[in-house]
Write a structure and sequence with these properties.
1 helix; 137 residues; Lipocalin; globular; alpha+beta
Length: 137
């Protein structure tokens, strides 16, 4: 009888935990950068997630782009994030920083329902810099 009660308890605990474990935090939506100067909409694009600038505090052009032909394009509408799945609530890909014209290898990780960490890396991932972004309301 004890064995049956223990087994039922385990089955019940697993049934409760399974839906919570199956829920992935989704980065889809609009996010505010850590500085508060940029809003980016993240949405599926092909098999990736892409982030497109929807608002910039000081709207302007992509003047720091290393390609002179791209320097006249508006920042709003610019794709700055391209990520592929890399595990539960994590993605890997590229991050474009329009303030210096550099593209970095990076990661995106959901740290809560309304927070995520973006990290851009150089030197093969030896040096990384992370920011915490918050979901825009």
């Amino acid at each position: 009888m004890r064995m049956r009660a223990a087994l039922l308890g385990l089955v019940f605990a697993a049934a409760i935990a399974a839906p919570a474990a199956a829920q992935r935090l989704s980065p889809a939506g609009t996010w505010l950068s850590q500085s508060g100067e940029t809003r980016v909409r993240i949405a599926p694009c092909g098999g990736q997630l892409c982030g497109t600038i929807t608002w910039v505090k000081s709207a302007g052009k992509d003047v720091h782009n290393p390609d002179p032909a791209q320097r006249g394009r508006d920042l709003v509408g610019l794709r700055m994030i391209a990520m592929s799945p890399a595990g539960a609530d994590q993605w890997r890909g590229t991050l474009y920083n329009y303030t210096n014209g550099q593209t970095y290898n990076g990661t995106m990780k959901m740290t809560g329902q309304n927070t995520m960490e973006l990290a851009g890396c150089v030197a093969g991932g030896l040096f990384c810099r992370a920011q915490t972004w918050t979901r825009a309301q």
